[in-house]
Each structure stands twice: as C-alpha cells, then as structure tokens.
Automatic annotation (TrEMBL):
The keyword Metal-binding applies. It comes from Loxodonta africana (African elephant). GO terms for molecular function: DNA binding; heme binding; identical protein binding; nitric oxide binding; peroxynitrite isomerase activity; zinc ion binding. It is found in: Cytoplasm; Nucleus. Gene3D superfamilies: 2.40.128.20, THAP domain. The gene is THAP4. This is Peroxynitrite isomerase THAP4.
C-alpha cells in the first residue's frame, strides 16, 4: 500500500525521501464546507476524493500545523486548508496525475486507471459506502456492521498520526497493498506519515445508511415501479455483496478475469453511473475480478500477486482489485444515486396521485352536497309557491266583501256633478319646484310634496298631502281628508287630519280655478307640540301653466297670521 499525495504535480508518496519531512493528510470528507475548500485548492477535474485520498504536508502553510504535546508530532489543525500548489506546471489532470506511479501500477491487469493520490487497494470499497451511502445498506445491517468494523479500524483518531498501513486493516489489504507496503519499507511508517486529517468518511456504515435517508420501508411494495427500483437496489447491493463472498476457486476466478478482459467496457471508468449500471447488469461485470496470481513477493505493484498462503484473503484480493472495485463501486454508487432518485420520483408521484385522489373525493363530496342543496332549494321553492297559493286562498276567504266591492273591471268612477267645480284639482301632483317653508320663528326650509286628489263618484273629493325632506326624502308633514261642496253653491268645506295631531275644518269658496278657505275649527291632541296654531288660511289655484299652487298662512299662539308655506305642483296623472 502506497500513500500518494493527490495534488497535481506532486509526486510525494509515503516512504519517499526524508520520512519525517512529509506527512500525509486525509481529505476532510465529513466536513463538506472544508472539503470544498480543499477541492477548490487542489483543482483536480472530475475527481472525487475517497477516504484513501491524501494531501502531503507540503501543500499546507506552516501555521496549518500544531504539535502533539507528548511527542511533538505534527498534527494538521482541524481548520487547515491547503494553499500551496504548483499548478503552473502542465496540469496532468485527474487521469494523468502521478503517471509515473500509475505506469507502474498500470502493468497490472486490474490496476486502477486514473485514480491517484489515494491508497490503492480495497479501501476504495469502503469509500463507496461512505462517500456514496448506499440506501440498501440499511436493509443489510450485518453487512454494514462488517463494513463498519473495517471503517472503525480504518478511522482511528482523527488527529492521530497514522501510517497508511494502519489506516487499512491488514486482513483486508490487497496484494498490491502488500507489495506496495513492502516497497515503501516496513519500518515505522506510523512515524513518518500522518493521516491526521481524519478519516472523515470512516464512520459506521449504519450512519452512512441513515444519511441516505431512504430505506425500502419507505416504499410500500405495491408499486410495480418500486418493485423494479427495489430490484435495482438489490442488484446494486448484490454487486457489493459479491465482493464479500468467500473466495472462488482459482479456475473460476481465472474465468472471471478472462471474461472481464473480454469486456473491458464493464470496468471502464469513463462510464457514467447510469452507463455503469447498464453495463454492469451481466453478473460477471460487477463481480470482482481477480489479479493475476504471482508467486513473487517482490513483483512490481503493477504485477500484484496475492500471497498463496493467504487463502483467506484471496477473495479480498480477488474482489478488491483497485480497478474493478473502484469502478464497480463507482457504478454501484452511481446506480444507487439513480435508484434513489427513481425512488424519490416514484414516491413523490405517488404522493401527488394520492393528493389528486383526495381532492377528487373532496370535489365529489362537495358536488353531492351541492346537489342535495339544490334539491332542498327546489323543494323550498315549491313549498313557497304552495304557501302563496294558500295565502291567496285565505285572503279571499277572509275578505269576501272587498272582492265583492271592487269592480271586476277598473273603470274610473263617474264624477259626481256636485264636485264638478273642483274637478281642476283632481289628479296626482308633485312639487315642482320644491316647496318653500317660512315662519318668523323658523329658518326658511324646502320640502317636496306629493298630492293625490281623487273621487270615487261621491259628492266630495278625497285628498292626501305627503311632504318629504328634499335631501333625505324622509317623510315630514302629512295630512289627508275630504273636500266637500255644498250642493248648488260654491261653498266648500275642507276637512283635514294632520300627523301633527291637529284636526281642522276650513271653509271657503271656489271661484273658477281658485279655492280660498280659512280655518273654521281647529282641534288637537292633548299633547300637541307648542306653539299651537290658532288660525290657518289656504289658497289653491290652477295657474296659467296648468300647475296647481298652494299657499298656507297661519297664526300661532306666539305669531300673528304669517305665510308658512308656498308650493307649486305639476300634474303627473290625469
Ligand atoms: C296647514 C298645515 C300646517 C300647519 C297648521 C303647520 C303648523 C306649524 C306650526 C304651528 C309650527 C310651529 C311654529 C313655531 O314653532 O313657531 C310649524 C313648524 C313647522 N312646520 Fe308646519 N304646519 C303645516 C304644514 C306644514 C308643512 C306642509 C310642512 C312641510 C314640510 C311644514 C313644516 C314645518 C316645519 C319644518 C316646522 C318647524 C319645525 C317643527 O316645528 O316641526 N309644516 N308648523
């Protein structure tokens, strides 16, 4: 296992040069804000750090470090952000970075392509569950515990100086790790390299599963889409599970390797998550591919060979090929993300559907209510009609005389010849212009008045005078009565009852189209308002314009005879 610096144009790796001079620091994968700062500083395109990605101490300023009290060991401060990079040199890019190292490792059939600055080996498998939490992991607690065990071993203390070898459990190291570690030297790497940035992603797999926020329990099994997505999940998980299966027989392993060699695209890191998923559907493609066996422990990392004796580790060697594992994990994690989004979509569409159903039910309910209300209104209408008919019937029954008295045809009654001299007064009259009120004790005022003078064939006229306020139209003074003529004379009697509590009789003469009368007797209610009127005179005349004029004067207990009213009416009905 070799720890390399992930920085562009930096070839530092563990064991190279002065051991104590350079330390290596993990990317703060758990601190997204700080991780972004690191990534921004590193400036590597299309590259995602894993828990086995490191930056060497040369990219940090001196004040980024503190020293551990006990042994004065260098620790990276928890807020440190790298700032020293040699980007001016031709950037080799994510794939080109560390090409020298990669040239070595690319000799191996399963060597990782384009992934640098990381601890090569199966550790990447751990990174998949931590970098891209797999929701299905929630369904497989046992496996997660196992993974967590590995991670726990890996994580150690955040700011403890760890050797890369310590950072990965020995039982799970790949053959390449073994060789690389040998190459790097077995002496105390713990003293020379520091993974003190902390294993940000090495938390328990359970917490990774929690972070996904999704489990199969969230999706009822009824949906076909969910079943499909669930099967995708299962498939994705099974690819991971495959890596943890017991070792396959060597022949089988070789066959698998052959098949993968025939299908290079299955492990092509250029595939996107979806493509990766699509290409990984054949069972062999997601199955880890074994390294080419070799008996030589001194073989180059590119020619990684598992120790023959370490049969227990065989499957790890087989499954943890840096190439296949990383690609498989990338594909699987990408697939998981895709599946998660499908799940979310499926879930939200189901929610929308249920909301629509709920709204539909409400609308149907309201429609039902509306229908019953309409029926009630219709019933009420028919009830009202029936009640009206009944009322009419009752009225007819209770007023037999009225019906009998009213002539069936509304013909105007023939005027009694006695009242003929007053016929010019007949009709409905409206004030035009408004009447004018005056009196020494009063402020001048105006009023409107409607006058009805009619006959019913009797030798008298019926009259009503109804005054209104000119602005508010509120009723004011009202009086009604009769005008009689002494037969064969021009003597007229004017009998009136007023709303002010006065009843009076005025008498006078009609001459042509002018009637002049004066009070004969005035009576009032006991509580009539003072000052009491003592005398009243009136004059009616039809003027040359055909308008009716009335002038009223009065004397009260306090005022002598003075004009109180003058008004002109225009005729509105015959
Ligand atoms: C022949 C009929 C009427 C008689 C005998 C009569 C009599 C009187 C008397 C005695 C007063 C009290 C005066 C004072 O306080 O010194 C009065 C006041 C007044 N009258 Fe007449 N009036 C007559 C018709 C009318 C009519 C048609 C109007 C029209 C609206 C009118 C409007 C008023 C008003 C506004 C006052 C002052 C406020 C009040 O005392 O109610 N009167 N009237």
């Amino acid at each position: 296992m070799v720890i390399c610096c992930a920085a562009v144009n930096c070839s530092n790796r563990q064991g190279k040069g002065e051991k104590r001079a350079v330390s290596f620091h993990r990317f703060p994968l758990k601190d997204s804000k700080r991780l972004l700062q690191w990534l921004k500083a590193v400036q590597r395109d299309n590259w995602t750090p894993t828990k086995y990605s490191f930056l060497c101490s040369e990219h940090f300023t001196k004040d980024s470090f503190s020293k551990r009290l006990e042994d004065q060991h260098r620790l990276l401060k928890p807020t440190a952000v790298p700032s020293i990079f040699h980007l001016a040199e031709k950037k080799r890019g994510a794939r080109g970075h560390g090409s020298t190292r990669r040239k070595e490792s690319s000799k191996a059939p399963g060597a990782m392509r384009g992934r640098t600055g990381e601890v090569d080996g199966q550790g990447a498998a751990g990174s998949s569950s931590s970098l891209h939490p797999n929701p299905v992991a929630k369904l497989e607690p046992k496996k997660l515990k196992r993974a967590a065990g590995r991670d726990a071993t890996t994580s150690r203390s955040d700011h403890e100086t760890l050797s890369p070898a310590q950072a990965q459990p020995s039982s799970e190291r790949t053959s390449e790790d073994t060789v690389a570690t040998t190459e790097a030297g077995s002496q105390g790497e713990a003293e020379t390299s520091a993974a003190d940035a902390g294993d940000e992603n090495s938390g328990p797999a359970d917490s990774a599963a929690d972070r996904s926020g999704i489990s199969m329990d969230d999706f009822p099994p009824g949906s076909g889409a969910c079943r499909f997505i669930g099967s995708l999940h299962s498939y994705s998980f099974s690819s991971k599970h495959t890596r943890e299966r017991p070792p396959a027989p060597r022949e089988q392993v070789d066959r698998k390797r052959l098949k993968r060699d025939v299908e290079p695209s299955c492990s092509g890191s250029s595939l996107g998550p979806d493509k990766g998923l699509a290409h990984s559907l054949p069972s062999s493609s997601l199955t880890a591919t074994p390294q080419k066996p070799s008996q030589s422990s001194s073989a180059s990392p590119a020619d990684v060979t598992p120790q023959p004796a370490a049969e227990a580790v065989q499957s790890e060697h087989v499954d943890a090929s840096p190439m296949s594992i990383n690609e498989v994990i990338l594909s699987a994690s990408g697939a998981c993300r895709l599946i998660d989004s499908l799940h979310s979509y499926c879930f939200s569409s189901r929610q929308s559907k249920s909301q629509v159903c709920c709204l539909r039910e409400q609308v149907e309910k309201k429609n039902g209510e509306l229908k019953s209300l309409r029926q009630r209104v219709s019933r009420s209408d028919s009830q009202v009609r029936k009640l009206r008919e009944k009322l009419d019937e009752l009225q007819r029954a209770s007023s037999p005389y009225l019906n009998g008295l009213l002539p069936p045809i509304c013909e105007p009654p023939t005027m009694n010849p006695v009242v003929e001299p007053l016929s010019w007064m007949l009709g409905t009259w409206l004030s035009d212009p408004p009447g004018a009120g005056t009196f020494p004790t009063l402020q001048p005022f105006q009023y409107l008045e409607e006058v009805h003078i009619s006959h019913v064939g009797q030798p008298m006229l019926n009259f009503s005078f109804n005054a209104f306020h000119p602005d508010t139209r509120k009723p004011m003074h009202r009086e009604c009565g009769f005008i009689r003529l002494q037969p064969d004379t021009n003597k007229v009697a004017f009998v009136s009852a007023q709303n002010t509590g006065i009843v009076e009789v005025e008498e006078g003469e009609v001459n042509g189209q002018e009637l002049s009368i004066a009070s004969h007797s005035i009576a009032r209610i006991s509580f009539a308002k003072e000052p009491h009127v003592e005398q009243i005179t009136r004059k009616f005349r039809l003027n040359s314009e055909g308008k009716l004029e009335q002038t009223v004067s009065m004397a009260t207990t306090t005022q002598p005879m003075t004009q109180h009213l003058h008004i002109t009416y225009r005729k509105v009905t015959p």
